[in-house]
Amino acid sequence: QKHNPNGDPFSFLTPTTQKAHFLFGLGLGLYWGEGNKKNLYSVRLGNTDPELIKAFMCFLKETYKIPETKFRFGLQIFTDINSADALRFWAKHLCVSPKQFGKVIITPSRGAGTYKTKSKYGVLTVSVSNKKLRNTICSEIEKLRKMDYCSGCSFKPM
Fold first, then answer.
1. Helix, strand, coil proportions of the chain in percent (round to 5)?
2. Where do the H-state alpha helices sit in 35-154?
3. pLDDT number for residue 12
4. Which residues, 6 or more positions from 64, have their beta carbon under 8 angstroms from its beta carbon?
5. N or C of the chain: less Cβ packing under 10 Å?
6. Structure confidence at residue 153 (pLDDT)
7. Helix or strand run (H / E) with residue 72
């Protein structure tokens, strides 16, 4: 209530169209696989693929009505990546303000490696600080864990 005097900053929209169901499943799957579930107060997901990040942001905007102004971004790069170029790349591809980015974390390179082709612009973490949102998404993932989505195959949920 202290941080949201006007009530809930988000509302869940039950998927009603095929596109909404797909986006809901995609968003849950992305968070289940790539999200940081240890932080109890925010929803965070990191990746090097701007399309994956955009898909997750779309999930949060469409399903939970999270306004773009609530998104915050963290960027981790190696020393051989220009931080200004990387920041411009991510801000442009995600259509967000550079003001939504925190301090760029620069990690020393550990010699020649193949990471350059995978992480040309670093690893971006998108986050939304909202404990209720985080708990709601984790609750949906728990429902998936218990679902018998493998009927007809040898893999069964535990």
1. 45, 15, 40
2. 50-64, 83-94, 115-118, 131-146
3. 81
4. 10, 11, 12, 13, 133, 136
5. C
6. 66
7. strand 72-78
CB atoms within 10 A of CB 119: 17
Predicted pLDDT at 122:
95
Question: Which of 130, 126, 53, 35 has the alpha carbon at shortest distance from 93?
Answer: 53
Q: How far apart are CA 58 and CA 147, in angstroms?
A: 25
Residue labelled with tokens 């986050």: 127
> What's the token pair of residue 131?
């404990």
For residue 74, the SS3 value is strand
Phi, psi of 76, deg, nearest 5: -120, 125
> What is the length of the chain?
158
pTM for this prediction: 0.85
C-alpha to C-alpha distance for 15 and 1, rounded to whole angstroms: 27
Contact 124, 73 (CB under 8 A): yes
